[in-house]
């Protein structure tokens, strides 16, 4: 039977002074040995004994040099070394009782052990040891810990750059967890029909992001032609925000009466498609030789090293006065200048009118009425710091719409440069990433629908997109034929065929009802003067007729749609009955595919969306 020994209280009183500290474990022995409650209770009951009296089977007698010292003068290092050797021999010769980390015995089976009983001694008061420095014990513990860790196999450090003296801190500002979420702000957006919606946006949301959010919530067709308009009714100004502009930042420069509008703008990037229509040759000059091609014209505007210049006569309103003067004006990258001597462009004759760096370009809504403008083609260069003061606005007027469009487009290009081209290319790149076959642009709600064929006994899903599109067109024409045939046969339909043909178009977005000619022209101008932009409205002169308002070459034209009868049925025609249509939907479908008597095909329709 292996034997073991337990050391009682006198050992604890020998090496610790009365400082109120916890007993410290000896180097080489278990830390919980001295914390056992049995030994702590025996401290006051057992008299102190000399080191020589502790000899037993597991403890060899200490050297004679310990006996020569006085009882209170203990050589601590030598005593600890001797105790280490004794404990090692004890552990090698016997099985010790397992202890938990808190000094309590484990609950498993414990081997029988012979306890060394100390010699009997008369009860006397326990004698405390003299104050002894315990730094030596701590140093021995540190050395023992170092020897234990050094015996482990070496593991390479995966981050050696973090251990050098000059290494940066482990937690850099960028590596810390993100702070609180970006601040949110409520923005109120109005539509063309006067309805509004309050949208909660982030501080870093751009105009493009907000437009896409409104398109999604309104279930509109996302054809990359929607724009956010900055509208100032008290100043009579408005402009379309660029796609990269921050909405919250723009709103901070607006007055309380100002608001955002959500509308179509097909001409936002039209100058990238047809630049020759926007920049007349007589208005553009270059500092270097230019071949005048389509690509060269755009490169000269987008290249910051080139020096394009727009020149011509404009009506300029004097600051703080109501009078207008016709001056020769030239637009450069450095700003807008006017000549004080005729059409001279010498530096001594040029005077700065406005700087484009901290300004925005607006169009005048009612320049004649509000500012006594000489023409209807006015625009304005508004400093960003100005909110309500009309005296600091630089008001200008052109002779026609093409000239005004040229000036305003050149200001945008010279101010933003490549940012505009990137805004234009983002939808193009996104469109190129779509499927290889061409599909009509559909709204969000239509994306969940599939084409079905029920001509057989069981229905099937039409997977071919070309077949699905042709089936949709056939179905659209077939239901009108069925409704007309059923009414002729005397069915109980509430609508007569003639009545149906006169009301079916009212469900379409391109029909705007009873609006005036001026109102239709205003809507066309607001949504962009591009070729093929159109709308239909009721005729004011003929109650039974309709009017097609169409834009071509930045000019607005009106075509009257007259009703005609044939075999008791009512048809509609644009060319005095040569081409007849049963309703206006068929008429619009035809002229979207064929030019006919119109100057161009119908491409884009004006739309008003209720938010």
Automatic annotation (TrEMBL):
Chief site of localization: cytoplasm
Statement: the UniProt record of this protein carries the keyword Phosphoprotein: yes
Keyword Phosphoprotein: yes
GO biological process: signal transduction
Region (Disordered): 18-67
Keywords, alphabetical: Cytoplasm, Phosphoprotein, SH2 domain
Coiled-coil regions listed in the entry: none
Domain Ras-associating: 183-267
Protein localization: Cytoplasm
Stretches assigned to the PH domain: 307-416
Database matches in InterPro entries: BPS-dom (IPR015042), GRB/APBB1IP (IPR039664), Grb10_SH2 (IPR035037), PH-like_dom_sf (IPR011993), PH_APBB1IP (IPR039665), PH_domain (IPR001849), RA_dom (IPR000159), SH2 (IPR000980)
GO CC annotations on file: cytoplasm
Record protein name field: Growth factor receptor bound protein 10
Source organism of the structure: Bos taurus (Bovine)
Lineage: Eukaryota, Metazoa, Chordata, Craniata, Vertebrata
């Amino acid at each position: 039977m292996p034997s073991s020994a337990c050391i009682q209280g006198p050992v604890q009183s020998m090496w610790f002074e009365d400082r109120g500290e916890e007993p410290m474990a000896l180097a080489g022995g278990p830390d919980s040995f001295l914390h056992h409650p049995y030994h702590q209770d025996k401290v006051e009951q057992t008299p102190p004994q000399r080191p020589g009296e502790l000899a037993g089977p597991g403890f060899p007698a200490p050297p004679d040099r310990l006996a020569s010292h006085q009882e209170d003068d203990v050589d601590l290092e030598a005593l600890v070394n001797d105790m280490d050797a004794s404990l090692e021999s004890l552990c090698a010769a016997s099985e010790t009782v397992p202890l938990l980390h808190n000094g309590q015995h484990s609950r498993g089976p414990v081997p029988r052990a012979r306890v060394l009983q100390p010699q009997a001694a008369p009860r006397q008061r326990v004698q405390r040891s003299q104050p002894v420095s315990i730094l030596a014990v701590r140093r021995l513990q540190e050395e023992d810990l170092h020897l234990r860790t050094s015996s482990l196999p070496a593991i390479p450090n995966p981050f050696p750059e973090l251990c050098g003296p000059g290494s940066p801190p482990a937690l850099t500002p960028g590596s810390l967890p993100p702070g609180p979420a970006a601040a949110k702000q409520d923005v109120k957006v109005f539509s063309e029909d006067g309805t509004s919606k309050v949208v909660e946006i982030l501080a870093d949301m751009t105009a493009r992001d907000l437009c896409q959010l409104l398109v999604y919530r309104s279930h509109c067709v996302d054809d990359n032609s929607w724009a956010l308009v900055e509208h100032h009714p008290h100043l009579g100004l408005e402009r379309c925000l660029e796609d990269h502009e921050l909405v919250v930042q723009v709103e901070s420069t607006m007055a309380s009466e100002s608001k955002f509008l959500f509308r179509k703008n097909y001409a936002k990037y039209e100058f990238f498609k047809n630049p020759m229509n926007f920049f007349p040759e007589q208005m553009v000059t270059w500092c270097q030789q230019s071949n005048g091609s389509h690509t060269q014209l755009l490169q000269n505007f987008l290249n910051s090293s080139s020096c394009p210049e727009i020149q011509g006569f404009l009506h300029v309103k004097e600051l703080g006065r109501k009078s207008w003067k016709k001056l020769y004006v030239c637009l450069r990258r450095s700003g807008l200048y006017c000549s004080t001597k005729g059409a001279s462009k010498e530096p001594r004759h040029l005077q700065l009118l406005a700087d484009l760096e901290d300004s925005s370009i607006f169009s005048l809504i009612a320049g004649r009425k509000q500012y006594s403008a000489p023409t209807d083609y006015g625009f304005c260069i508004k400093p960003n710091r100005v909110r309500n003061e009309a005296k600091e606005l630089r008001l200008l007027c052109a002779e026609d719409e093409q000239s005004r469009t040229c000036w305003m487009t050149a200001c945008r290009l010279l101010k933003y440069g490549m940012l505009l081209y990137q805004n234009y290319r983002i939808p193009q790149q996104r469109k190129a990433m779509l499927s290889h076959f061409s599909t009509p642009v559909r709204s969000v709600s239509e994306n969940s629908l599939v084409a079905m064929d029920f001509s057989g006994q069981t229905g099937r899903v039409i997977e071919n997109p070309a077949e699905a599109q042709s089936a949709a067109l056939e179905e659209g024409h077939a239901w009108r034929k069925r409704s007309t045939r059923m009414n002729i046969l005397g069915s109980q339909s509430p609508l007569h065929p003639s009545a149906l043909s006169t009301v079916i178009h009212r469900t379409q977005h391109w029909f705007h009802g009873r609006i005036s000619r001026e109102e239709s022209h205003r809507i066309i101008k607001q949504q962009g003067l591009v070729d093929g932009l159109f709308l239909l409205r009721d005729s004011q002169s003929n109650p039974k007729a309709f009017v097609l308002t169409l834009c071509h070459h930045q000019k607005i034209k009106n075509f009257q749609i007259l009703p005609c009868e044939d075999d008791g049925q009512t048809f509609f025609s644009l060319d005095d009955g040569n081409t007849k249509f049963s309703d206006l939907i068929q008429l619009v479908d035809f002229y979207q595919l064929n030019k006919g008597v119109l100057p161009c095909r119908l491409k884009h329709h004006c739309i008003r969306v209720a938010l």
